[in-house]
Design a protein that fits this description.
By secondary structure, this protein is α/β, with parallel strands linked by helices. Helix content is about 35%, strand content about 20%. The chain binds adenosine-5'-diphosphate and magnesium ion.
Length: about 260
């Protein structure tokens, strides 16, 4: 982390404000610097602007005021370094599992042999070896999301942005997916941005949690998560983890009652 901190930030957000058209301010004065290899979660009440902030960083919507840089570039110029995972798995129904995961590699122009190798490896990491030839309709919700994550990570993006990717899944599937995400990250490191409203998930995954308040969205607390990576599932039952869970839940509650 020392080396990372001495580098220029991967993402730098300063004085960011966002409104849509002539509407009210959605985000008001966001400042954030994220170093390479960090995993930052945004949590906050529904409608506080989490998705909007993620989309701004990804260059999918423009800032109204202030600035965002990604690797020193405007976000629109840095799109190739980022991969965005949306809330639903968004798989192509007519493509088999392996073909879905392969798609970004195909678009990038990778040759068939390395493509096949990479797809096999990604599917193995997310526990879907053997499901290559299945179609999305043959998969459970959790499996679909695993395919979506394998697809996002197939190109080993420098920056991965995930907008509540695991929201609709049961707790066991969610835990499993979070463990997969960290396992992949330990092999192919990426800087992560994660939107969730599940506190335990934020603490398990993140190196830092940014709590956002609503109307307009702003940063109300920043919580450092000191646990070293790789993180084991058992971390979730340790007293330091549970203490941080309580701290984060309190910060979130403070926003909700404000
Ligand atoms: N494309 C858009 N046009 C107009 N308003 C939008 C648009 N996207 C989001 N908003 C508004 O911005 C606010 C924040 O939305 P969003 O970022 O989706 O919140 P969150 O992800 O925290 O639930 C909401 O009031 C929402 O209605
Ligand atoms: Mg959202």
């Amino acid at each position: 982390m020392d080396r990372a901190m001495s580098e220029a930030p991967v993402v730098k957000v300063s004085g960011l404000r966002k409104r849509f058209g002539a509407g009210p301010l959605v985000l008001d004065g966001i400042d954030l610097e994220v170093a390479r290899g960090e995993f930052v979660s945004f949590i906050g009440p529904s409608g506080c602007g989490k998705s909007t902030l993620l989309r701004l960083i990804a260059g999918l919507t423009p800032a109204s005021e202030g600035s965002i840089t990604v690797e020193g570039l405007a976000p629109e110029q840095a799109r190739k370094r980022m991969f965005f995972v949306f809330q639903d798995a968004n798989l192509m129904p007519w493509r088999r599992v392996a073909e879905n995961v392969e798609l970004p590699l195909l678009l990038r122009g990778d040759a068939p042999a390395p493509r096949r190798e990479r797809v096999a490896r990604m599917l193995e990491i997310v526990g879907l070896a053997g499901a290559e030839a299945k179609f999305p309709w043959q998969l459970s919700g959790g499996m679909k999301m695993r395919v979506s994550i394998a697809r996002a990570l197939s190109v080993a993006p420098e920056i991965l942005l995930l907008d509540e990717p695991i929201g609709a899944l049961d707790e066991m599937t969610r835990d499993r997916l979070n463990e997969d995400l960290l396992a992949i990250r330990s092999r192919d490191p990426f800087t992560g941005f994660f939107v969730t409203h599940a506190v335990a998930e934020a603490v398990f995954l993140s190196s830092r949690i940014v709590v956002l308040g609503a109307n307009p969205g702003r940063v109300t607390a920043v919580i450092e998560v000191p646990f070293a990576y790789p993180r084991q599932p058992e971390l979730r039952e340790t007293p330091p983890f549970l203490r941080l869970l309580a701290t984060t839940a309190q910060a979130l509650r403070a926003v909700r009652v404000a």
